[in-house]
Amino acid sequence: MSKLKIVDSFLGRLIGDTASMASVMGCQTILVGLQPEVAITLMELGQHLEGVYTALNTETGLQLLEQLIGDKAGKIETANISEEEGV
Predict the structure, then answer these.
(1) Res 63: pLDDT
(2) Domain segments of the chain: what residues?
(3) Which pTM does this prediction carry?
(4) Of the given ranges (26-30, 56-60, 73-77), which has the lowest mean pLDDT?
(5) What pLDDT score does 5 carry?
(6) Which of 9, 47, 48, 82 is deepest in the core (most CB within 10 A)?
(7) pLDDT band of 84, cuts 50, 70, 90
(8) Mean pLDDT of the chain
């Protein structure tokens, strides 16, 4: 996304729809390198991109991904332990 300089409502909707489809499949969406001007334009267009995470660069994007995966794995592990204790 770092090369994107101009955004319109169509592109904003496309990003949001793609993130929604990824969410249905159990995936997280992280936009990396979004220019401040583009982010401001998306907000002004009313594209809030719910459920989409953002990161300044690839390194922080990967750190965020590791954190999200770790949180999800921890919740699954906790749920499995709770189920085993209830049996």
Answers:
(1) 92
(2) 9-86
(3) 0.65
(4) 73-77
(5) 76
(6) 47
(7) low
(8) 80
CATH homologous superfamily of 9-86 equals STAS domain (3.30.750.24)
Tokens encoding 8: 């319109």
Burial of 60 (0-12, 13-18, 19+ CB in 10 A): middle
Instruction: Tell me the DSSP string of the chain.
Output: -TT-----HHHHHHHHHHHHHHHHTT--EEEES--HHHHHHHHHTT---TTEEEESSHHHHHHHHHHHHHHHHHHHHHHHHHHHHH-
41: CB partners within 8 A, 6+ apart: 7, 12
Beta bridge partners of 32: 55
Residue with tokens 């809030």: 48
8 A C-beta contact, residue 53 and residue 29? yes
